[in-house]
Every structure is written in structure tokens, then in C-alpha cells.
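Let us practice reading a record.
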Amino acid sequence: MDEYVEYLIELFELFGPVTARKMFGGYGLYRGGFMFGLVGYGRLYLKADEILEDPEEAALWARRSFEAAVRAAAAKGTSR
């Protein structure tokens, strides 16, 4: 198993027991037999259908993603 996937399993420890299975060149992340995330090309993708029906939740996720993008740009020295 790759180091990033092992790190994610540790990261989600408070969420509960998480396992990973190889699939499509990446890994599926599972809890209780349900896949809730996908790891591919060094990126984590989480299922998030509830944000598609809740504008407040969508704004919260978008804000967090935007803030992460700004921090990443600042770390590279490429702020706008």
C-alpha cells in the first residue's frame, strides 16, 4: 500500500476503522463495507452528494477549498 494511503487511514482514525482496496490504479477507502473515498494520482476524493442539495453546505466546502488553494499558492510564492 502506498504511503499516502497509509497516512489517510491514520488521518481518518477518529472517523472509525477505515480500510483501503486497490482499484483502477488507485485505492478505494471504505468503512463498514461502504466506499466513501477514492485516492488517485496523489489526490483524495470524498463522496459529497449532500452538498449538491444544500447551498450553505456547498458554500462551506467551496470556501474551504478556496482557502486551501490560496494557502498552496502562497507556499509556492504565486499569490494573486
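A brief commentary: The two ends are 38 Å apart (CA to CA).
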